[in-house]
Design a protein that fits this description.
By secondary structure, the protein is mostly helical. Helix content is 82%, strand content 0%. It folds into two domains: 2-123 and 254-273, no CATH class; 141-246, no CATH class. It is built from ten helices and no strands.
Length: 274
Amino acid sequence: MASTLTFFSKRRLINFGLLLSAVAAFWVLQEIYANGIHATAILSGATLFGTCLVLALFNARKKLPFIPLLKASTWTQFHIYAGWFAVVVFFFHTGLRLPDGRFEIALYIVFLAVALSGVLGLIISRIYPSRLRLYGENLIYERIPGLRQQLQTDVEKIIWKSVNETKSFTLARMYESKLKDYFSTKKNTLLHLVGSEEAVNDLTEELNQLQRYMVASERVFLAEIIECVKAKDNLDMQATCQGVLKYWLFIHIPLTFSLLLMGLLHGLMALAFN
């Protein structure tokens, strides 16, 4: 474990050093071309567009795993630090000020959206996979709705078995008032996004309070239901985390290609009028 941490620490240090070197080299080039405002703008703009184009190729690399173009992990590291380089160049290019024209403002906003969605992707790719591993088996995302439905069926069987054996409707009334809706749909999405178990803990505590109104035979059924409640919460957590990991690219990638098209048009307009 220590050697693994050392490896990642060294890799992070090396990559950060390369990023600083690239920024320094770009700054030197900016100073060399500082004899004219258009020259520096064209340099930073071309550098920014080229970097974004290379970053977009990362998605193409993921779709072609059979081609020996370095390991996917190497491309991921390059993508992360090249992304930070693009952010730095962007602020060189814009001069830390909002542009004037409507098209330029739209381009500015799209770039920020791409950058922020990239940062979001970096954060969730570091947090959610490890969180999923803490909860045991990593379920297939498409199977989760079916597993949720099966779990609800199992709970209803437990309820009716309890009614038939104990002649008490305490669990049945509790199910209708609190658990039927809980088992039928995904719940507590926002809490699962931040890794909170507050909702399921509150629910299980509330269910445990029912024991005072039950005979011993009912408590056995209640314990089974509480286990199902925890299993349902695990399904919801997996659905939330896997869903974010799965679908954030449906935001990041279209924004990236919109940025490339708008950036290309912006560059052609700048060259035509300068």
